[in-house]
Write a structure and sequence with these properties.
Helix content is 38%, strand content 19%. It is of the alpha/beta class.
């Protein structure tokens, strides 16, 4: 299963959702789970050291000269059941190579969760934006992570890409409710994640690689 998590606006909590969802899926699968980092923030959220070697950026840039099975040699261990495919350094180019990446990830025996980051409208952002759109669009489960904010939802509506489900960050004082978000986007809300201090502390301390806060786990357990 290939799960992509993405947002239409920065600061929506995509990396936190990916880290938590990865741990949840790893606990269900004997082979663990693989997390794929397009944004570069996953190691810090998981409390893992910054990967010193090459990653996705280098693999994409190398083209067909590097075989698909070389991806496995780029993985870094986070825990006994979670591994991460790091971003690497440099731009995420070569959308044609990203199609190969998507095929390899979809064929993995483990559940794979991709931190796509922010997806931009067509024609903006160059090749890195194309890579993000591709990985968000071809996933078995494509999850838009958004705050219950009209600006964020409006940006998502402007994209030609439609998710299979929505993860909503719930905050006090927001005017949009779950029903309104579902009506606007035409897709179901599969998880409501309450914005709370316990989750923020776990992220800041890099503890998501060890333990998912109970409320966050309950909110995401049926998201994918």
């Amino acid at each position: 299963m290939l799960v992509s998590c993405w947002s239409a606006k920065g600061g929506s909590g995509t990396t936190t959702v990916v880290a938590a969802l990865g741990r949840i899926l790893a606990a269900r699968n004997d082979d663990g789970a693989l997390l794929v980092d397009l944004g570069g923030d996953l190691p810090a959220a998981l409390g893992a050291p910054e990967p010193p070697g090459p990653g996705l950026a280098e693999w994409l840039a190398a083209g067909a000269a590097v075989p698909a099975d070389a991806l496995g040699r780029l993985e870094e261990r986070v825990s006994s059941d979670v591994r991460i495919l790091p971003r690497g350094r440099g731009p995420l180019g070569r959308p044609d190579r990203a199609e190969v990446l998507a095929e390899v990830l979809a064929g993995d025996v483990r559940p794979v969760v991709v931190d796509v980051g922010t997806v931009r409208a067509d024609g903006t952002g160059g090749e890195p934006a194309e890579v993000a759109r591709l990985l968000a669009g071809v996933a078995t489960v494509s999850l838009l992570v958004t705050r219950a904010c009209f600006l964020s939802v409006r940006r998502a509506l402007a994209l030609p890409l439609r998710p299979s489900g929505v993860v909503v960050l719930v905050e006090e004082g927001r005017s949009l409710g779950v029903r309104e978000i579902e009506d606007l986007l035409g897709v179901p809300v599969v998880a409501e994640v309450e914005v709370e201090a316990a989750v923020a502390r776990a992220v800041d301390a890099g503890m998501l690689g060890v333990r998912v806060p109970r409320k966050l786990e309950r909110a995401l357990r049926h998201a994918a």
